[in-house]
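Before the break, one more example. Copy the sequence into your notebook; we will annotate it together after we see the structure.
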Amino acid sequence: MKPRIIISGGGTGGHIFPAVSIAGEIKKRFPDADILFVGAKGGMEMEVVPRYGYPIKGVWISGIQRQINLKNIIRNASFPLKLIVSMIQAGSIFRSFRPQAVVGVGGYASGPMGRVASAKVPLIICEQNAYPGLVNKWLAKRASKILLGNEAAKKYFPGEHVIVTDNPIRAFESLSREEAASRLGIDPTLPTILSLGGSLGAGPINEALKAQLGLLTAEGQNIQLVWQAGKRYYESLRQEVAEHPRVKLMPFINDMAAAYAAADLIISRAGGSTISELIALSKPAILIPAPQLAEDHQTKNARSLSDRNAAILIQQADAKENLLPEAIALLNDKNRLNQLQQAIQAVEKHDAAKEIVDQIMGLIEAGAGRRE
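Here is what the structure looks like once it is written out:
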């Protein structure tokens, strides 16, 4: 069998990397499979996906801006036109590629492609978060399968076609601490904090870290920070922290295997894919949800761990005062750090990519259409 599958979506690493993981599992089983990605023109997926060797086509679509100001009102005014054009483009891509199934991983690019495909072939949507995104809610009634990364989202999607699979994550090679530190250019002997602000960076986390960097070396402390600042924040931060002896500042971390392997503690946003990576790798973490996102869904993601003492939740409003002091206190309390690690290690783990591809191939082999 030679599957022909479109994977659509993107916008952030939280959508892109699960999509790449699904594609990798398909190729592992069916090396001659034809896989086409469909993203949003100008989205980061148009740059990231080709690095993994997959073709991608773009449609002219972007998200609705929820914050009300003149700039966003102007941007939102063009949304109906973009939606119409993107539907036409998605239809053309569908007819040209002739897929046997379409997988939507979230993000606005998955909307037009999923809508066009759902009347003709199985549509499988993957929801990473505890609260579903706008596009997945829009597509849900047309989906043959809805695959969830977080069980808390199940209440929003009733039906027997809804399955909890966890989120597929990137494959991380196994590295020793020494190998990882060497690849990052840091000291393997020092306690290490890894800060991840998401693929686009997080200004409030950056500001919280910058405000208290002196704590890393104060009063006998000797802690190093590997800091993914985000491309849009990197240059201004580089000028301010360049001389700090214990900071490794990076715009984006491509070598996440090394970053995770070297870290004793993670500071991060609480996107669904990040939560799944922390669970898979059993990494203790401090989570700072982004409260401005739809329905504050990152707080729901974070609480899925913090409620079972498998992570620490700090609200964004408290981060500037509490983030680094809490992180340093945790690194200095080995018992508490071990308790966090044991709790996250006990969280049930799935081979999500395998389960998702099982569902995709089951639909293709059954010749299933869309659900009525």
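The longest strand covers residues 34-40. The first helix runs from residue 13 to 29. Try to locate both features in your own notes.
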